[in-house]
Amino acid sequence: MSRETVLITGGAGFIGGHLVEQLLKKYHVVVLDNLSTGKISNLPSSPHLDFLFGDVSKVSDIDNAFEIYTFTYVFHLAAVASVAASIEKPLETHQINMDGTIHLLNAAKKQADTIQKFVFASSAAVYGSEPTLPKKETSVIAPMTPYGIDKLASESYVIAYSRLFGLKASAARFFNVYGPRQNPDSPYSGVLSILTSCVERVSNGDEKAIFNIYGDGTQVRDFVYVDDIVSGLILLAESDESTSEVFNIASGENHTLLEVIAIYEEIIHQKLPLRFESARSGDIHKSYANITKIKNIGYRSQTTLREGLAKYHAHETSQEVMVLI
Ligand code: NAD
Ligand code: UD2
């Protein structure tokens, strides 16, 4: 039997690559990506995977994909994922993070009869720093950066297209995602990718390795393992109840940075060298999610922070062994 076809924009990125891996078990997967931050090495090799080099801010690149294929699901992950980049270049970011979403929705609208769900990757950044916790989908929305503003506008377009044109669509607000293949190279990379890279250096006896804590380490986050994000996205795609709705995807747990560090120290049986720096300006002290809405349609966060960190560390260690071989 021939496989149904799924489009993943941004499929060569950190989260996209994990989604591709999972969807290849059942579907033919088409990745549309301009490799600005994504990498071909994030993609498995498979006869069921097609890679289209393309830019979501170019209508012709999107139309080309929709002329070749008829999609059952569309996952829209392509974006400038860095808040810092969005502050530095708001207009260029907007052309990708906002206009790109509209171009994709316009193309998907023409396949509204066959697309079972269009799923958009939004962010907890839409909540901003308003202090009420935990964040529910109905909480105050107050994005503070071009990145958050474009995510909010995009998710509003996604839900509007769902209601106006019968394109079945949902949006997912990810909290702090972590796991293998997250890039630790920028100071604004996810804190757990930076911490994990420090853990690897310490485990290998690197005496210069040090982890900078911005603030006193009591900041709280809802860290969600990438496999749980992937299962949440697939649930939203396959569920009838998710249509025209926005959902948080998170772990539902919350931890201080100091707690995370203590868990890693237990995993590697070593103390981590820490340096306390001033808190970053604009840093949100506490952010965590209420995940009741997505749980009500069947989501279960499968990975505790301890399990996720242990898996992440094991993955990084095995990569080092492969490099040595
Ligand atoms: P990532 O940078 O690894 O992935 C983004 C992908 O999009 C990359 O492969 C990149 O090459 C591609 N891309 C960028 N601009 C493009 C363009 N114009 N045309 C085509 N492809 C383009 O980031 P990620 O962490 O995997 O993020 C995936 C999605 O999830 C993004 O939409 C991001 O905003 C969202 N998100 C991520 C997090 C997180 O903690 N990582 C949190 C909230 C939301
Ligand atoms: C996340 C998103 C950001 C935006 C924001 C909205 C990531 C990587 N960032 O920012 O894009 O959506 O949420 O609320 O997903 N820290 C250190 N040392 C380091 C790096 C970070 O102490 O080397 C601290 C940092 O100051 C912050 C916490 O760790 O208090 C988490 O930092 P982050 O950049 O991983 O994520 P966050 O929640 O600030």
Automatic annotation (TrEMBL):
Belongs to the NAD(P)-dependent epimerase/dehydratase family. InterPro entries: Epimerase_deHydtase, NAD(P)-bd_dom_sf. It holds the Pfam family Epimerase. It comes from the Bacteria. This is UDP-glucose 4-epimerase. Residues 6-250 form the NAD-dependent epimerase/dehydratase domain. PANTHER family: DTDP-D-GLUCOSE 4,6-DEHYDRATASE-RELATED. Signal peptide: none annotated.
